[in-house]
Sequence to fold (471 residues):
Amino acid sequence: MKISLYEHVRHVLFEQEYDADGNPVGTDELSKWSSCIPRVYKNRRGQAYNCFHIIKSKNRVELTADYYVGVDWLIPGEKYVHVAPKLNKYVIERFSELSNKEADVEEYKYEDSEDTRELETESNKVQVNYLRMLLDAMSDPIVAKECRDLIKIEWHDPMIRIEQEDDSLTPFLVVQFLQLLRQIVRKGLKKSYYKVSENLSNRVKGKILVGQQVKHNILKNRLTKTYCEYQVFGEDNSENRFLKKVFQFAIAYIGNHSSLFQGNEKLLEGITSYIRPAFEHIGDLEGENVLRQFKYNPFFKEYRDAVRIGSYILKRFAYNISQATEKQPVETPPFWIDMPRLFELYVYQKLLEANGHDTGKIKYQYSTYGNSLDILIKDGKNSIIIDAKYKLQYKSHLVHQDIRQVAGYARLNKVRKELEIEEDRNVDCLIIYPELSLTEEINLSAEGIIKDSSYINDYYKVYKLGLGVMN
Fold:
């Protein structure tokens, strides 16, 4: 049984009922739900980040999604939770409205009432184009290096049978793989020594394969033939054959499940057209154990990630390409996608693109005193501290906690020293959040980003800026 959720929407798993005599009914079910433990996505500095939350009270158990998108078991073999990549229009509108109204914000709380349930209707949800965010983020080799920990897959857990339209895992892996493969092709396929077996005429090369020589030549009286094995230096090695095999799976999947790629089919078609010629002269992979034989070259760093993601894709289809063309319910391992980090990287890529890919000017994840600042723009008087916030909670007063956090970074001496600010002045602070729709192009250059941002009235030199992530 599936339980569907979106960000910060509560679902009542169990509510205690009583019979006519006032005795509780269904205590076993209450005990079962109360024993559920949400999966931890990561632990950082002693703090556990859960994929979802189970809120328990004396007579009620509720489930709420958090900052991750995915599928996971609640009760193995019985019930699972599916968190879709959607945002609530009301939440974002409340952010824009309340970020300038300190008093109103502090009073606003989420309550499970008829009015709030009305806000959770399907018409109030907007699909996040998470694949476009991934495509854009990984189009930049600098940002692509940061994309390794965007997804957590629990291969050892029981598989979950889901409808194909609920499958966010496979499209995500396919897009990630194709972007890595494009980087590899741009740099040039890796060359290495690999073994070739061939039945040669009137010559010997390398070593003679006695068994094959007897079978193919001596027993057939081909006395001028010699079956040999020798090494060749070139691109037709096992690593490239493996990548070609996964590439074929990816093409088959895109061709048969284009509706799952959120309108990004033309972009993907351009990427596959760019990649395809590089693998035309690469042979087919023989056997799957070749994965264990790979040796990674530091110069070809992309190969390690491409082989890792490629192995996930083959494992996803049980190494059977026919499964990539089927249109029916699929089985998936529990998985979670880190949407806030994906949005962070999407923002980082857009800033790099607008500032000439200058990593000296655009600094990502600057660490200080146990904190990591999302992005610093180091540009003299145009220096800015940026915090990327993907999801905005129903308890909208937390918006002001975020503002105070980014403003606090501006007071750190280490940050001011990094930005080379010597005079007594405050640094501009900016919160970038997801926008529903954008009618005008935003200037993200260091000189123009503040001009296109909105001033937050209750704070000095603190701004906000919406960045489009929707279809």
Summary: The chain is about 30% helix and 25% strand.
